[in-house]
């Protein structure tokens, strides 16, 4: 992938994973009232032992992008979050700096962690005081502490955590227990089982008034630093601040095992399902575009149709990672090439691979197959170039059929292939010409 | 998919998901001593509300096969398990019977459940006593109770649960807690948090001496039936039997949310990565086959090479769901057609879609593209037929290049495409001719 950020901007607020967050201020009257500084601390020093992988899980990649970059992005896109402090182990420092650079993260400061999770968080909190290098960040009113391996946190939930923390001093996400919890004897038998309704799993994010959590860490013992698991507990013990617990959405899950990484990949793929169909002005193209829109819509893809070029559709394009070019003109590769350039310059493929599908249909029933196949070389060449820019280019060929029923079948088949390419997003098939 | 089971057998013991279980008797001396009857009860009456899906999660499909069929298969393949009693809600009865028929499950009895999980389990246990219809199953010494939505349970762990249940009266799987557990006040604040090391998540499977769990259910109260969650707790309370707790592998996870269904699909895809390369006797084919073996091996696929036809390789074939036919002869479609027939008759694609890739390479540098493209129609036709039998046929074209370096690149590209097709297993691309 091209790693140059300077030459390419990128969408300022790529959409969140689950919710349409455009109407937050209506749903949460508090939204406008975040008129105090908010920062985030992301401890990311874990070793990923549970995963059974050599790479710590926060650095495992989905679409060649480490999980921690997704988590950073989840905070970075939120306007009222000022700073994100990432705390890493010494051996991951270079890798982390590369990630920041490659994916153009802007609000991030990277610090070295301590020997335990709590020491790392405390190091992170100290970034807002006086730093030895004199470079300190503005002290936040509220600090959110989150896990690097929970990439799907949404703005609306962060807002609730932040407001509750401001009002109550501390707040934390909880979830219902999935399994019954039992106390065990040292010999491996049941001591007793807990009444599920009275307990909750304590999850992340947690929010704190900065001064409270900072004071708690200043007072806490070696044993707390070494063996404690809960920041909420420290705030309670040392500052008498009892956290407001807020039930979070299922999306707060933590990538813990290898199967969770699979799930994260699928969730991200699922999220990238909105498409934009671009047609030329000819009537046949436009008609095919609308058939595509309908057929892909029936396959749960949200599809917009643009005639001509992107033009004034920038806001639409910035929410889309799939582009379908419909054309009857085989000499359209120059146009595709322009689209690749536009997407690249807009930084559209910086965070996720963009999919670009050239749908070519012939109105002449028996135009030369050989001639069209000759284009394959050119398509493959362009696809290889595009791939370096994280844009996956595929081509689909439709033979127009006078028979309405057969034509309907061909369009359905093309739409099925399109859905497959978008869903799988497999770079190994870039440059292929598929026949509908 | 062809649903006729009568005409097609299937591998008696499809491999387990994670472990090579062939040497179980060495690792577990108890293996041979399972000389007592063992049965399974699978309560499957849940509604899947947490999933946010219309279909109860045990009936959600992966590769067009409901999750519960994977779970049934996990038990069915184990020789020392006699019977599997599946307990379903009335509205799922027909669906369940269809699943049993379609996927040729043999050891299963389906019963109607009660209004709660405990009532359903008790109904299941009664299948081994006198049934109203006079059809009772042999009473087991040990009964294993499991969740329909934990499809990845392995034989070695079931063996440990079974032996411990026989010896101690009851046994159950536990896992470390992933999150801190907190007791909450009614106002939504922390009451106290639990010391993580003293607690475990109680998971499934659980094993019981049949008479013990049956007696416990006979004695238990309406409140237990309605609100109880743990069978282990009933055995302790009513029979004084304290279960032996055994730490299970991560694979015991439960499909609870939509993202878990994504994960299940990926785990299954990951499991189906062993391939069998079939070559003709010609030297070029054999050479290419070995290059493929090496290159796919580097992509974490385990690959065996067979020369000629399946012949005596039945044991190998029965563990494989990916077949790669290498040929220089374009007139090989008859052979591919025979392979489709053989796989179908062996029931190889009954449980998972099989992938069959025709890798065609030309030693003549400039053989006619048009001629080869003419074959595309025939390949597509055959692919459509194969798809009805749950066999996904794709073709890859390689142009042999005298230049060693370029040929190396072409082979690498073919191997990359093969890996993509095997990994994605996407039926929408069946019948496509891809160019390496």
TrEMBL record, chains A, B:
SUPFAM superfamilies linked to this entry: Nucleotide-diphospho-sugar transferases
GO cellular component: cytosol
Gene Ontology process terms (BP): isoprenoid biosynthetic process; protein O-linked glycosylation via mannose
Domain D-ribitol-5-phosphate cytidylyltransferase C-terminal residues, every copy: 274-414
Entry EC number(s): 2.7.7.40
Catalytic reactions of this protein: D-ribitol 5-phosphate + CTP + H(+) = CDP-L-ribitol + diphosphate; D-ribose 5-phosphate + CTP + H(+) = CDP-D-ribose + diphosphate; D-ribulose 5-phosphate + CTP + H(+) = CDP-D-ribulose + diphosphate
Subcellular location: Cytoplasm, Cytosol
Primary localization class, coarse: cytoplasm
One Pfam family recorded for the sequence: ISPD_C
Enzyme superclass (EC): transferase
InterPro entries (UniProt xref): IspD/TarI (IPR034683), ISPD_C (IPR040635), ISPD_synthase_CS (IPR018294), Nucleotide-diphossugar_trans (IPR029044)
Pathway: Protein modification; protein glycosylation
One GO MF term attached to the UniProt entry: D-ribitol-5-phosphate cytidylyltransferase activity
Annotated keywords: Cytoplasm, Nucleotidyltransferase, Transferase
Protein family according to the UniProt entry: Belongs to the IspD/TarI cytidylyltransferase family. IspD subfamily.
Biological function: Cytidylyltransferase required for protein O-linked mannosylation. Catalyzes the formation of CDP-ribitol nucleotide sugar from D-ribitol 5-phosphate. CDP-ribitol is a substrate of FKTN during the biosynthesis of the phosphorylated O-mannosyl trisaccharide (N-acetylgalactosamine-beta-3-N-acetylglucosamine-beta-4-(phosphate-6-)mannose), a carbohydrate structure present in alpha-dystroglycan (DAG1), which is required for binding laminin G-like domain-containing extracellular proteins with high affinity.
Subunit annotation: Homodimer.
PANTHER family: D-RIBITOL-5-PHOSPHATE CYTIDYLYLTRANSFERASE
Name under which the protein is recorded: D-ribitol-5-phosphate cytidylyltransferase
Organism in which the protein naturally occurs: Paramormyrops kingsleyae
Native organism taxonomy: Eukaryota, Metazoa, Chordata, Craniata, Vertebrata
């Amino acid at each position: 992938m091209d790693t140059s950020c300077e030459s390419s901007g990128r969408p300022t607020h790529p959409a969140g994973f689950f919710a349409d967050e455009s109407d937050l201020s209506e749903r949460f009257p508090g939204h406008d009232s975040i008129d105090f500084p908010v920062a985030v601390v992301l401890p990311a020093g874990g070793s990923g032992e549970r995963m059974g992988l050599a790479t710590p899980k926060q650095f495992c990649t989905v679409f060649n992008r480490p999980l921690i970059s997704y988590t950073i992005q989840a905070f970075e896109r939120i306007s009222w979050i000022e700073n994100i402090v990432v705390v890493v182990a010494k051996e991951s420092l270079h890798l982390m700096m590369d990630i920041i650079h490659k994916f153009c993260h802007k609000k991030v400061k990277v610090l070295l962690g301590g020997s335990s999770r709590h020491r790392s968080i405390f190091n992170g909190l100290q970034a807002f005081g006086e730093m030895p290098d004199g470079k300190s960040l503005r002290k936040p009113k509220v600090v959110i502490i989150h896990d690097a391996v929970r990439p799907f946190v949404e703005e609306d939930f962060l807002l609730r955590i932040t407001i509750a923390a401001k009002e109550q001093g501390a707040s934390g996400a909880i979830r219902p227990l999935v399994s019954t919890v039992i106390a065990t004897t040292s010999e491996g038998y049941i001591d007793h089982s807990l009444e599920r309704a009275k307990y909750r799993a304590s999850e992340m994010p947690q929010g704190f008034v900065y001064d409270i959590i900072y004071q708690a860490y200043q007072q806490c013992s070696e044993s707390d630093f070494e063996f404690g698991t809960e920041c909420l507990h420290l705030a309670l013990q040392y500052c008498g601040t009892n956290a407001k617990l807020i039930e979070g959405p299922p999306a707060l899950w933590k990538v813990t095992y290898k199967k969770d990484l699979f799930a994260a990949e699928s969730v991200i793929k699922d999220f990238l399902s909105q498409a934009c169909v671009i047609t030329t002005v000819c009537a046949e193209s436009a008609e095919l575009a609308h058939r595509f829109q309908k057929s892909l819509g029936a396959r749960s893809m949200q599809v917009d149709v643009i005639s001509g070029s992107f033009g004034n559709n920038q806001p639409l394009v910035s929410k889309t990672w799939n582009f379908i070019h419909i054309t009857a003109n085989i000499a359209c590769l120059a146009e595709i090439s322009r689209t690749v350039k536009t997407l690249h310059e807009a930084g559209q493929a910086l965070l996720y691979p963009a999919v670009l599908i050239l749908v070519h249909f012939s109105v002449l029933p028996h135009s030369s197959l050989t001639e069209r196949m000759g284009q394959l070389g050119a398509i493959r060449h362009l696809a290889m170039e595009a791939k370096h820019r994280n844009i996956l280019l595929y081509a689909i060929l439709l033979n127009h059929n006078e028979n309405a029923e057969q034509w309907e079948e061909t369009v359905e088949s093309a739409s099925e292939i399109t859905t497959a390419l978008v869903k799988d997003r497999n770079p190994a098939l870039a440059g292929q010409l598929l026949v509908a």
